[in-house]
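Try this one yourself first.
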């Protein structure tokens, strides 16, 4: 029995240090969220899930309104923490840390999460959705790093190079036969 997961990476959101959870979409990001909704106009969606972060929820909110569905938030689907709360590591260092973390799943910057620890918290939610919503079409509001880490669990071709080419927003259709990932198709951009 096929289950479809649409992983919707959030639209553009201006970075604000210390506001990972609450920062929303930019005006451009809100316009992109409306365009994302158009992609789903003819698709029958049965369930919607999201990271609890505002930008992920806002990106799929118009879909929920269009379909008359509620969005269930899962704390375990939050974006990966790359560093401790007081650290202000530069982008170049974070970029290299992300690269290294796909080669060594136990690597993490001090105070941050390894790819393996992210898989350990997020995959039970994905497995539960695949079991409880079997045969359904599900939309998940997500983030680039955790989306790639989840996909990497099912197919190691989805690693750093894949992550590095994703856009904001981005949509991937994952087709599962029971709990086996059969196909991945990029829907957006």
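Now uncover the answer:
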């Amino acid at each position: 029995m096929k289950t479809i997961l649409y992983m919707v990476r959030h639209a553009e959101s201006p970075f604000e240090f210390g506001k990972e959870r609450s920062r929303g979409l930019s005006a451009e990001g809100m316009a992109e969220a409306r365009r994302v909704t158009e992609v789903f106009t003819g698709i029958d969606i049965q369930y919607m899930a999201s990271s609890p972060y505002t930008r992920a929820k806002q990106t799929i909110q118009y879909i929920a309104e269009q379909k008359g569905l509620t969005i269930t938030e899962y704390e375990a689907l939050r974006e990966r923490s790359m560093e401790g709360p007081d650290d202000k590591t530069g982008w170049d260092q974070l970029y290299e840390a992300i690269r290294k973390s796909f080669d060594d799943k136990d690597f993490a910057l001090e105070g941050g999460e390894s790819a393996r620890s992210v898989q350990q918290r997020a995959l039970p939610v994905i497995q539960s959705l695949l079991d409880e919503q079997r045969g359904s079409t599900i939309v998940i509001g997500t983030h680039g790093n955790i989306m790639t880490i989840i996909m990497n669990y099912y197919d190691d071709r989805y690693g750093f190079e894949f992550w590095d080419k994703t856009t904001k927003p981005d949509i991937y259709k994952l087709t599962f036969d029971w709990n086996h990932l059969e196909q991945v198709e990029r829907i957006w951009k």
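Discussion: The first strand starts at residue 2 and ends at 9. The chain has one domain: 2-186.
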